[in-house]
């Protein structure tokens, strides 16, 4: 199964594509979509939408895993990130790829085994699990890979249901 993990944002959208087969991981590609501060939000959202569409077209994932939003005290940033997340979900559904969503607590638990793990622990474990030479940069990219691994761990027991669902739901 090819999984696209996405860490939503307006300035940086981290993404990572992995293959999960018979309990083994293979990293296919990863990176970040970046938008410039100071330009109109609509233009930034359009950039995210178009670049993400290229990623869907290039890697043809079977599933997309997106981190749920965690609001901190800056509601203005939270709204822009929520708008970007909407564009991400729209792109996934337009490409007929099933969407799964995970909280930061779920991702940390799946990667480190502890939901309150530090960011550095998550990044180190992602690097080890995917047998990467270096921690992916920027941090949003490492987070996206962690989200993809979380989906692989969470969805492994549901693979047959996933393939059956994909055949019927996304036609």
Structure at a glance:
This protein has 171 residues and is of the alpha/beta class. It has helices at 41-59, 75-94, 104-112, 119-129, 139-155, 159-169; strands spanning 2-7, 12-21, 24-34, 63-67, 99-102.
What would your notes on this structure say?
51% of the residues lie in helices and 21% in strands. It has helices at residues 41-59, 75-94, 104-112, 119-129, 139-155, 159-169, and strands spanning 2-7, 12-21, 24-34, 63-67, 99-102. Strands 3-2-1-4-5 form a five-stranded mixed β-sheet. The protein is globular and about 40 Å long. The two termini are 19 Å apart.
Q: What would you call the structural class?
A: alpha/beta
The helix tally amounts to: 6
Report the average pLDDT across residues. 89
Secondary-structure element order, as H and E? EEEHEHEHHHH
Range of strand content: 15-25%
Salient structural properties:
alpha/beta, five-stranded mixed beta sheet, 171 residues, globular
């Amino acid at each position: 199964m090819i999984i696209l993990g996405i860490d939503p944002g307006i300035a940086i959208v981290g993404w990572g594509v992995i293959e999960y087969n018979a309990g083994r991981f293979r990293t296919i590609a990863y990176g970040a979509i970046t938008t410039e501060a100071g330009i109109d939000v609509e233009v930034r959202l359009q950039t995210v939408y178009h670049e993400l569409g290229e990623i869907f077209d290039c890697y043809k994932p079977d599933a997309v895993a997106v981190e749920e939003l965690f609001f901190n005290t800056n509601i203005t940033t939270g709204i822009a990130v929520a708008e970007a997340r909407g564009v991400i979900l729209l792109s996934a559904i337009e490409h007929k790829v099933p969407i799964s969503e995970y909280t930061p607590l779920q991702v940390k638990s799946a990667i480190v085994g502890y939901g309150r793990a530090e960011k550095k622990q998550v990044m180190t474990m992602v690097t080890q699990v995917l047998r990467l030479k270096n921690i992916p940069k920027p941090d949003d990219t490492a987070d996206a890979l962690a989200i993809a691994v979380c989906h692989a761990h969470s969805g492994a027991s549901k693979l047959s249901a996933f393939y059956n669902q994909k055949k019927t739901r996304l036609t």
